[in-house]
Structures are given as C-alpha cells and as structure tokens.
Design brief:
Helix content is about 25%, strand content about 35%. It is an alpha+beta fold. An eight-stranded antiparallel beta sheet has the order 13-12-11-14-18-15-16-17. Strands 6-7-8-3-9-10 form a six-stranded mixed beta sheet, with helices on both faces. Helix 2 (about 90-100) packs across helix 3 (about 105-120) and helix 2 runs parallel beside helix 4.
Length: about 325
C-alpha cells in the first residue's frame, strides 16, 4: 500500500500542496482530479521521486521511500507525450527498463511478450514507434511501464493527446488491464469523464488541498461544496438567503430545501439545482427557451435567465418551460 503523508510544497512562495495525505490500496485506482495549476502533476512527481517535497513522507508497505531514488522505487510512469525513444523499435522500447535492471535476455523476452499481449500489440515488436498511431504509441508506453512489474502505476494526463473515440476505447482497455493485474494506480487528469470512468476513488484538489474524496458515485451525488459542483458541471449554481428553516430566497424565486448545515435566517447560502427531472420535488425552474443543444443522448436546454436543464426531447426555442429540479444546499 502507498501512503502519502502530510506533503507540503510551495511554488513562487505560495503553498501549492498543503498537508496532502491519502493512501492507495492494493488493486485500487485513485484519480487526482482538479483544474490546471491545482498541483496534481507536482504531487505525482513527488510520489515518483522526480521532485522533492519540502516536508512530508512517502511510504510503501510501511517503508519510508521519501528519499529513495526514482529508479529504485519500482514505480511505472505513463505520460501524455508517451516519452518513447523514436530511434528504437516497439520491442526495444518495452525492453528498455528491463535492460536497465540487467535482467537476463530470456526473462526480458518473456516479459516484453507478456506486456505487449496485455495491451493488444502482439506482432508489433519490430515496428518503429514513429510509424504507429497515437493510441498505439500510448499502448507501447503502457507496456513499457507494465513490463517492469511495477509496485505502483502512475498516469499523468495519459490520454490528453488522443481524439475522443480513441480516448474512450483506450480508457476501457486500461481499466480492464488494471483490474487484471491488480497493480495500484494513481491517475492524474483534469477531465471528469476520464476520472469517473476509471477511478475506484476520486480525490479533488483545489488550492493545494484535497477538498472532496470518495467513490465516483459518492462525489457525484454529494459534492458537498460549490467548487466541486461547479468543477463537475453538476447543475445550476445559485446564491440565496435563508428566510425560514427550509426555504431560500433567490433571484430565480423561492425554493424549498433541506439543508444539512446549520443555517440561520438571513444567512447567505449556495445552492445547486440539478438539471434533471426529479419526481416528487416541489421546486421548479422556469423561463423562455433561448438555446437547445444536442449532447450525446439528451438536449441541453438554456433559459433566458441563464439556467439550464437536460431533457430527452427538444423544446422549441422561444417556448415557455417549467421543469422540476432537485435543490441542494452546499457549503
């Protein structure tokens, strides 16, 4: 098990990572999700040993590896730019880390073949990596990381350079491979779809801190803060004033809401209106439809007041619409 304990790091005299702590269990994939500049990649580099923390510890199976050189940690790294050697073949790229470890040629051949089979590249051994597609090159990078039989796999925006369809296909394959090998993994991304598709647990970074941690389902259903709800695009964000125990006044009207936080009358609160139909909810958002955009299997419908909902059928632009929503009180 990997344990990250109280990692602290500054950038330009400001905290970039502030007392970061978490664990990664055997066979678990966690995702570090956050906006650009939130410190995700820096944290990954610290865990890999490529960059020092100013304080804190990195432990693996209870052993302190904070100052262990990167090549002695037995961690596999996969980057967005593949970091392959263009003058070497597929076979030579995958074998590189094994040769650095001075393994016997028979063992190297065995491991390379097994790694290429895992990533569906059997038969590509003698090809130049420069002749491969982006998805194939990323598979080679993954095979190279797997060949050393790492104790931990780390991915830094690995699919960012690929088109959407290829990204989805490779993401599905990667999830299958991680479950098959049971190698613990840390996956860094700013793409929420990637995070929710691959992670067993999501850690959301903001201003150097982990502000939300949980399973994809937990984070989606209970964001707990306005920042997380906005980052994930969960719905319409509003500010209001408590006018009674369960009622909030906003510029869009008054809403009934059950707030788990202790709020007094007259206090400002932040609300999330989920843009979906919610049977049994007493709240509704209303307006004139000004825009309708088809998104995969639904329509995003925007009102003249800036609010939006997702519907399975497209209303006419200019029509009056009222849609029931679920209102949540956020911290």
């Amino acid at each position: 098990m990997l344990e990250v304990r109280n990692i602290y790091k500054t950038y330009e005299n400001k905290p970039l990572l502030n007392n970061i702590s978490f664990t990664v269990a055997v066979g678990e994939t966690i995702c570090l999700l956050g906006a650009s500049g939130s410190g995700k990649s820096t944290l990954l580099r610290i865990i890999a040993g490529l960059e020092p923390a100013e304080s804190g510890l990195i432990l693996f199976n209870g052993q302190d590896i904070t100052f262990t050189p990167p090549h002695l940690r037995d961690f596999g790294l996969v980057f967005q730019d593949y970091s392959l050697f263009p003058h070497l073949s597929v076979n030579e790229n995958v074998a590189f880390g094994l040769r650095m470890r001075r393994l016997q040629e028979a063992e190297i051949s065995k491991r390379v073949a097994a790694a290429l089979q895992l990533v569906s590249l059997t038969g590509f051994e003698d090809r130049k990596v420069t002749d491969l597609s982006g998805g194939e090159q990323q598979r080679v990078a993954l095979a190279r990381a797997l060949a050393i039989r790492p104790r931990l796999l780390m991915f830094d925006e690995p699919l960012g350079a690929l088109d959407r369809t290829l990204r989805e296909d490779l993401l599905n394959e990667l999830r299958t491979i991680l479950h098959q090998t049971e190698v613990p993994a840390i996956y860094v991304t700013h793409d929420q779809e990637e995070a929710f598709a691959i992670a067993d647990r999501i850690l959301i970074l903001h201003r150097g801190e982990i502000i939300r941690e949980g399973t994809p389902t937990d984070v989606w259903t209970d964001p707990q803060s306005a920042y997380v709800a906005k980052l994930l695009g969960l719905g319409n964000m509003m500010e209001g004033i408590m006018i009674s125990k369960n009622e909030v006044q906003t510029e869009y009207g008054n809403f009934r809401v059950k707030c788990s936080h202790t709020q007094s009358n007259g206090k400002k609160v932040k609300l999330l209106a989920r843009p979906v139909r919610a049977d049994g909810e007493a709240n509704a958002i209303r307006g004139v439809v000004i825009n309708v955009i088809f998104q995969q299997d639904r329509f995003k419908v925007t009102f003249d007041n800036g609010m939006y909902v997702f519907l399975t059928e497209a209303p006419k632009v200019g029509s009056q619409l009222s849609v029931q929503v679920k209102i949540e009180c956020l911290a």
